[in-house]
Amino acid sequence: MPSPSPVDPFSFFGHSLWIKRDDLLPEPFSGNKGRKFASLLADSFDGVQTLIGYGSPQSNSLYSLAALASRRGWQLEFYVDHIAASIYRGEEGNYGGALALGATVITVPEPNISPREYIESIRLKQMDADACLYVPEGGRCALARRGVHTLGREIADWAAARGVAHLNVFLPSGTGTTALYLSEYFHQQHCDIRVVTCPVVGDGDYLFDQFAELSADSHIYPEVVGDAHHYAKLKRDELEIWLAMRRQGLEFELLYDPCGLLVLKSLLDANAEGNWLYLHQGGLRGNVSMLPRYRRKFAQLFERDVA
Q: Which residues carry this modification: N6-(pyridoxal phosphate)lysine (predicted)?
């Protein structure tokens, strides 16, 4: 892992907080996936020839796993429900970029079965299973712990050096892996740091189910706030806050951050106590496919902004 990502002051709708800039970690392993997949880059994994994952064909995980497999000399098999005919195929996007790196993106060949079910019940029972390394969707597995703990140590060291007490670290969550392992680290180190997250896929119950798959110790779970969220639905208020941040000189990705920023704003507007740090988890490659969708639906909002 390269040098710690910077922490910058962040003026946010009249509130003063900080932002941890994991988006500035070097490509192709910047942001959230650079943390989760750090051990996959560093450990030996003798005998592995094939890396197996699943998710959306436009996900950041696909591109990051493809880059990782390319660097390690492995073949990536990435399973999906379907590939839309209209999918963006340019190499600057996640799907096209992954294909350029040699990834094989496979629509599940069996009917009425999810990618996860296919991998776990069929693919990993084939003759070459011992040469396969399986990474669940979004890196939701114990392999993510080391890299996220490194992130936690960076935040704790920064807070100690700056004398920042009662720190709240906020981030939006899909599988909740980063939030969980961050909270675990701060509990283990007895830090005066609390992790707060919001669901971007489903609701809080879904997030707690994801936490439970990784740890049975509910005492280390992050605090979950915010309502249920319809993932990938185009919302005017989410685009508006994204554009507001871009006018301020900060670009965020368009699937998770807008939801997270709106929830954080509501917390701060309600006079949430303590110091706050927002974790920028990168993922900007996905904007090349999301922005055209937003432009088509909310063209008027872009009239005063140059994209």
A: 33
DSSP code at position 302: G
Q: What's the pLDDT tens digit per position in 34-79? A: 999 999 999 999 999 999 999 999 999 999 999 999 999 999 999 9
All residues at 6 or more sequence positions from 295 whose CB lies less than 8 Å from its CB, including other chains: 302, 307
Same domain, 185 and 295: yes
Residue 134 parent element (H or E):
strand 132-134
Give the model confidence (pLDDT) of 123-170 as tens digits: 999 999 999 999 999 899 999 999 999 999 999 999 999 999 999 999
Q: Is 11 a catalytic residue?
A: no
Q: Catalytic residue among 59, 64, 173, 289, which? A: 59
Could you give the number of structural domains in the chain?
Answer: 2
Give the pLDDT of residue 1.
Answer: 52
Let me know whether 87 and 149 are in one domain. Answer: no
3-state secondary structure of 249: coil
DSSP string, 208-223: HHHHHHH-S-GGGPPE
**Co-location of 152 and 294 in the same domain:** yes
Q: What percent of the chain has pLDDT over 90?
A: 91
Quick one: 74 and 115 in the same domain? yes
Q: How far apart are CA 217 and CA 183, in angstroms?
A: 11
Range of the domain at 165: 7-28+143-302
